[in-house]
Amino acid sequence: MIPFYVCSVSQPILSATRLTEQGFRIHLREQPTITHPNGFEAKLRAKEGTYFLPVNNTGTPPNYKLDVHDTQHDIWTYNSQGYLVRLHKAKRRATYMPDQQCPVPMDKLEDYRRTIAHKHDDTTEDFEEKLHSLEYKQQKRMLNTAWKGETWFKAKKNARPPRPPTTTPSKALPAPSQQQQEQLQQKRRYTEKKPQ
């Protein structure tokens, strides 16, 4: 999973460290490449000693509308320190526990949760807890006021992001043999309705 954000830049920047944490492998050979065990492979280009993955901007077709707006929904991301982060853009009162939408299963998360709650009175509450050791009442503990902010989790070293759905190209069917073609024609003769 490579999250992209729409920004006004000439070229997007991907962190090699972030990609390797997600299972990608960077091979610096005569022809540098980036690969993933799921089958992804792309050539890297070098310019002035910096390797990069070329991105083609195809533009938006004329019959499509690109609707870009700031979302107020909570989203998952990874921060620059390698933590899996739930960004809380909508106000909430309770601390956050991962659910089915979490990109890493609960058993693949370390015993760590950090909550950074920015409150409407311009104060910030920042605390760490042992995720798997929390009692039921502490899991979604209510804070004294509504807040927006972040909840950090640490994925275990062996955790990999879920595999993207794979699509296999459809295989062309072999042409029917002469005998099969004759059988089909004979079948049509007896099953087709003749005009009167």
Using only C-alpha atoms, the radius of gyration works out to: 26 Å
Query: From N to C, what is the helix and strand string?
Result: HEEEEEEEEEHEH
Unreliable stretches, pLDDT < 50, 5 or more residues?
Answer: 162-172
Number of strands: 10
Strands of the widest sheet, in order across it, are: 6-7-10-8-9
Distance between the ends:
62 Å
By secondary-structure content and strand pairing, the structural class works out as mainly beta
Helix content estimate: 10-25%
Mean pLDDT: 76
Care to give the gist of this entry?
The protein is mainly beta. It has 3 helices and 10 strands.
What does this molecule look like?
This protein has 196 residues and is mainly beta. The protein has two domains: 1-58, no CATH class; 75-155, no CATH class. The protein has helices spanning 16-21, 136-139, 178-191; strands at 25-27, 33-35, 41-43, 45-47, 50-52, 75-78, 84-94, 109-119, 124-129, 142-155. The radius of gyration is 26 Å and the shape is extended. Residues 162-172 have low confidence and may be disordered.
Walk me through the topology.
Elements (H helix, E strand, L loop, with lengths): L15 H6 L3 E3 L5 E3 L5 E3 L1 E3 L2 E3 L22 E4 L5 E11 L14 E11 L4 E6 L6 H4 L2 E14 L22 H14 L5
Keywords for this entry:
single chain, 196 residues, mainly beta, 2 domains, five-stranded antiparallel sheet, three-stranded antiparallel sheet, 10 strands, 12% helix
